[in-house]
Amino acid sequence: MAETKPTASASVKATSVQPKKSGNAISWIAPIVCIVAGYLIWRFVLGAASGFNNPATDGWFWPEHKHPKDALHRIYEGGIIVPLLIGMLLMVIVFSIERFLTISKALGNGSISDFVRKVQYHLANRNVDAALAECDKQRGSVANVMKAGLRRYKEMINETGLDTEQKVLSIQKEVEEATALELPMLQKNLVFLSTITSVGTLVALLGTVIGMIKSFAALGDTGGGGDSSALAVGISEALYNTALGIGTSALALIMYNIFTTKIDSITYGIDESGFTLTQSFASLYK
């Protein structure tokens, strides 16, 4: 009977990479809090009775104040869509801060390209421990993936039951599993920014259309001839929805592009790390 070679899965222990424990409560708590905060800002800041010449005394949820004293309080008359738009703006701010902190941590200390070059130098000198020490200094996502690969790299140096190709495959598998755990953490919650980018303008247009309908309906009730100034005021109030929605969508798009660019640089560093480990092992430990 032909002799069979031992396989990597049979001779090498399971991956040492552990799933990251991270709560995702912000994903469902933050939108609710932001919408509620948006209503409170609209109702009690923009809709403060002191900001109107003719404040309403009834209708706690949506009092119909008239004749705002300044442009800030005029936004209140944009209607009930305005609190939703303010809430979406707050969501952009909250998730931008959250992603900034997370991605800044994932970038680690110092330049990723410099870190990879240092690891390459240590591996070329067969000093795996020094390469692991560089990972502990860098402390980013690229370093986490590199560290997992280096641990398996170090194990494979003394592994006698596998050939070089199987050892390289084992290192590559370790890198892939570490990468699969790092990338979701980087991309989490970006969906909110991408969604607001497109939905924000649509919600703003909805508020504008509602405001225009109300303005023309009021003009029709007066017979269509009298108060053109009231129509102009009503249209300007409706357009506050458009301005707020476009501004929110623009900010969301800018932040989304910034974060995806940073994530792309981390992903490139991770790919370069995997290539470095496999090529180094294949050339040094044939």
Characterize the biggest β-sheet: 2 strands, antiparallel
What is the molecular shape?
rod-shaped
Strand-pairing-aware structural class: mainly alpha
Helix content: over 70%
The total number of structural domains is: 1
Strand content: under 5%
List keywords for this structure.
286 residues; mainly alpha; two-stranded antiparallel sheet; 10 helices; 2 strands; rod-shaped; disordered N terminus
Topology:
Blueprint (H helix, E strand, L loop, with lengths): L7 H4 L14 H21 L5 E3 L11 E3 L2 H4 L6 H27 L4 H13 L3 H11 L2 H17 L6 H24 L2 H32 L6 H57 L2
Antiparallel strand pairs: 1-2
Task: Report on the architecture of this protein.
Mean pLDDT is 87; it is low at 1-12. The chain has a two-stranded antiparallel sheet with strand order 1-2. The chain contains 10 helices and 2 strands; from the N terminus they run H-H-E-E-H-H-H-H-H-H-H-H. With 286 residues, the chain is mainly alpha-helical.
